[in-house]
Amino acid sequence: MKFAVASSLLLAGLAAAAPLTEKRMARRAAGSRRSNPAYVPGAFGTELLNITQSTREVEYSENWAGAVLVGTGYTAVSAEFTVPTPSAVGLGIGQFCAAAWVGLDGDTCDTSILQTGVDFCIDDGDVSYDAWYEWYPDYAYDFSGITIQAGDVIKISVVADSKASGVATVENVSRGKTVTHTFLAESDELCEWNAEWIVEDFEEGSSLVNFADFGTVTFTDCEATKDDDTVDTSGAVIMDIEQDETVLTSVTASGSTVIVNILSMSHQQPKVPVRQKASKIENGMHREFVLAAVQFHKLPGTYK
């Protein structure tokens, strides 16, 4: 019996650390995996969400769930989280993923993002984890030399040394391993207007991946540097993912903690807009979207 239990645990550990499938390796090698700015629900790739003057308790995005600080002078952001075990949704056929990351810019400044984080995927039963770094609009690149499994405590941080240079760091606290990447003379400069803690439905092969059921991702020790002072999430705008008129996540933030929950299929909320009015000011610096209040009613929902 002890041998059987040990064998089961060993197999579970091997599954958690399984390498990428050949299909996914080929996609990443081709430079097709990318995190993006937040998009308006139902408008991925066409209409960016901008929360410059948000007065709502929650904003909705096609691809971002988490907390976003809006202002000026943000030059660093960091947090810790425990790696979840992803699950497939529905019939469970194919690849399902999500990514937990921290970043600078990407909302009120949508021309660039300095970010780093971890992908967690399940592909036909095979689970994989990948640490990566990215200076959007370039694609994400995987770190080498770091192993990640479910239950590991990960610390992630980015620091902007200037608007065109910075450092991305992923530390596996549980295993005592740290990897870093230094960006130099990037052509798409930061604005330093946002700091964020995000779980994302990221892009692979020019479309969003199937969003995995990750349970809960809890970012702790959330800190950002603003004008050389250390701040927490106070005043951050909460963002939830809405796809196909259904809210898929529930986010809360308080002090140095951001909690991102995936809603179970029975608690996902079809969203009924009362009124929506959008206005744009496009001058290369700024976009504004004013969205009206919304109502909710709870009905059984499914991923699509």
UniProtKB/TrEMBL annotation:
Catalytic center residues: E200
Gene3D superfamilies: Peptidase G1
SUPFAM superfamilies per UniProt: Concanavalin A-like lectins/glucanases
InterPro entries reported for this sequence: ConA-like_dom_sf, Peptidase_G1, Peptidase_G1_sf
Listed GO biological process terms: proteolysis
Keywords linked to the UniProt accession: Disulfide bond, Signal
Positions of disulphide bridges: C97-C121, C109-C191
Signal peptide positions (record): 1-17
GO MF annotation: an example: glutamic-type endopeptidase activity
PANTHER family associated with the record: PUTATIVE (AFU_ORTHOLOGUE AFUA_3G02970)-RELATED
Protein name: Aspergillopepsin-2
Naturally occurring in which organism (per UniProt): Talaromyces atroroseus
Phylogenetic classification of the source organism: Eukaryota, Fungi, Dikarya, Ascomycota, Pezizomycotina
